Amino acid sequence: MTPDIIIKDLQKKFQQEYPHLDLKFFQTLSRGKNMSTIKKFCDPLHLLGDALNLTHTGSIEIRDDMTVNELVLQFYEQFGVHAQVFRQSANLWMEITLTNNWTLVQQNNHGREISIQ
Questions:
Q1: What is the separation, in whole angstroms, between the first and last Cα of the chain?
Q2: How far apart are CA 69 and CA 101, in angstroms?
Q3: CA 104 to chain centroid
Q4: Tens digits of per-residue pLDDT, 27-47?
Q5: How many whole angstroms separate alpha carbon 46 and alpha carbon 52?
Q6: Which of 20, 53, 69, 96 makes an SS bond possible with 88, Cβ 3.0 to 4.6 Å?
Q7: Cα dist from 50 to 6, 25, 81, 96, 100, whole Å
Q8: What's the rounded Cα separation, in Å, for the pair 77 and 60?
Q9: HSE (CB half, 13 Å, CA atoms) of 23?
Q10: pLDDT of 62-116, one tens digit each?
Q11: Of the candidates 62, 75, 100, 97, the residue with the CA atom closest to the CA atom of residue 25
Q12: What are the strands of the beta sheet with 37-41, ordered from one edge?
């Protein structure tokens, strides 16, 4: 991962391995004191470095047995960027929250199963 990679290219690589999952990056924005934090998803056509102030290069080993939670945590710990994984459900993309302890393969398989029906 480098600051000069286009977000869409990184997403495409992820979807080649997990076609029923989608990886998105976001910034957190605070609405002020005692108010909730909101997510502002990055434009996939922007450079990762510009969108998220990424300044260094590195890599993350994404494994089939890695949970969604582990992947998201690794992006944050290694690069300080916020990531979110979505799963396909028919023709919708649902944010993974309740099953974020499932592996990427389990998530992808589930997305395939519920999209076929």
A1: 36
A2: 6
A3: 11
A4: 876 666 666 677 788 889 988
A5: 10
A6: 20
A7: 10, 12, 12, 26, 28
A8: 11
A9: 24
A10: 999 999 999 999 988 888 888 999 999 888 899 998 899 999 999 999 999 988 7
A11: 75
A12: 37-41, 21-30, 82-89, 92-95
3-state secondary structure of 71: helix
Burial zone of 85 (CB within 10 Å; 0-12 exposed, 13-18 middle, 19+ buried): buried
Structure tokens at 58: 């590195």
CA distances from 81 to 48, 77, 111, 116 (A): 9, 8, 25, 33
Q: What's the length of the chain?
A: 117
| pTM as predicted | 0.85
- Give yes or no for a contact between 75 and 34, defined as CB atoms under 8 angstroms apart: no
Residue type present at position 40: K
* CA dihedral of residues 75, 25, 11, 43 (deg, nearest 10): -150
Name residue 28's amino acid.
Answer: T
Over 80: is that where the pLDDT of 2 sits?
A: no
